[in-house]
Amino acid sequence: MARVLIIGAGGVGSVVAHKCAQNPEVFTEIMLASRTVSKCDAIAASIKERTGRIIETARVNADDVPELVALIKRYKPVMVINVALPYQDLTIMDACLEAGVHYMDTANYEPLDVAKFEYKWQWAYQQKFKDAGLMALLGSGFDPGVTNVFAAYAQKHLFDEIHVLDIIDCNAGDHGQPFATNFNPEINIREVTAKGRYWERGEWVETDPLSWSMTYDFPDGIGPKKCFLMYHEELESLVQNLKGIRRARFWMTFSENYLNHLKVLGNVGMTGIEPVEFQGQQIVPIQFLGKLLPDPASLGPLTKGKTCIGCVMKGVKDGKEKSAYIYNICDHEACYAEVGSQAISYTTGVPAMIGAMMMVTGKWMQPGVWNMEQLDPDPFMEQLNLRGLPWVVQE
Ligand code: NDP
């Protein structure tokens, strides 16, 4: 049915490629392209071994629009699945417009020199995509992504109005390393060390990084864990699209060990994003740190335990107050057995494949730039249950 081009051969790109290959009725031809072609080739070899399917690979610099356009025009996919880094979102969107193909990603654009992620840069493409008759789907990972769809499902089926939303992301897995990040270290540390921000009665309230915490008792044997308030990009679109929302917050669990390492690294300047001169060379401390830390993809065989990510919501239905919790539990070892990756890459890569599936099968296809909660949650929720990320609703 559809020929797709996946860009980015990291932890997430590997899962997207494996999951697309597992779905041959929809994804008939697949190309995986990235900066380092040997990583694409290693993923292609794993796919051949696990599914028997052959996918194409290519080298591309996704910062370079003409190079991207040339690759897209040569391969002729119907859409590009962007799972490179957030810095490449705009160049890939530009290339998709120029080559006339649809676009999807899992993280919003972030300029390299400012640790600030916002949708404004990508929302500015709305008219261009509409005029070209093309679709851009933003943030089809887990959070953003599935969390937006959970909220849309709750708004459609469980509530007349959602007043309070708490998105809670718990990684109760253990990789046994002194310090490592579960996805791209640079993006992860920029996100975690940024100021916290939440929505309350029509405005954003800012908090110091990791200064607010609560303990939440997670289901499925995970138990109580300390969670920290952070800003997360899906809040920006959800507060615009959820009817009657009064407060929206995002929480993530971190171990004491992770926080101690982060504090020391921050204190000595290793998480900085400003270049410093060292022996005649410009070095960005966080990029150097990223090189020293374990590659997130290498954590796959080491990580044990589960993740639990979901939305806790309070609101009204038929004039009565009610609350609901929608969540998914994912097991690191089961993910590794299936596709050779840990659960953080898996919980991002599976929704990326489903988002692409929603587009190419026509269920979600419409011109313009869209966030996940603006589209019908039902077919996406159905696929989550079928493709490895089953969900639970507790009312
Ligand atoms: P990785 O760092 O593991 O992988 C990124 C890949 O992109 C690498 O293969 C890298 O190439 C490639 N890349 C980087 N720059 C370029 C470029 N200029 N041209 C071509 N390829 C490039 O990251 P992850 O797989 O962990 O994350 C991928 C994306 O998923 C990120 O945007 C991240 O923010 C997002 N994400 C979203 C989540 C969600 O729930 N929504 C959760 C987790 C991640 P090379 O191998 O040469 O370095």
From TrEMBL:
Pfam families: Sacchrp_dh_C, Sacchrp_dh_NADP. Residues 141-388 form the Saccharopine dehydrogenase-like C-terminal domain. Residues 4-137 form the Saccharopine dehydrogenase NADP binding domain. It comes from the Bacteria. Gene3D superfamilies: Dihydrodipicolinate Reductase, domain 2, NAD(P)-binding Rossmann-like Domain. This is Saccharopine dehydrogenase (NAD+, L-lysine forming).
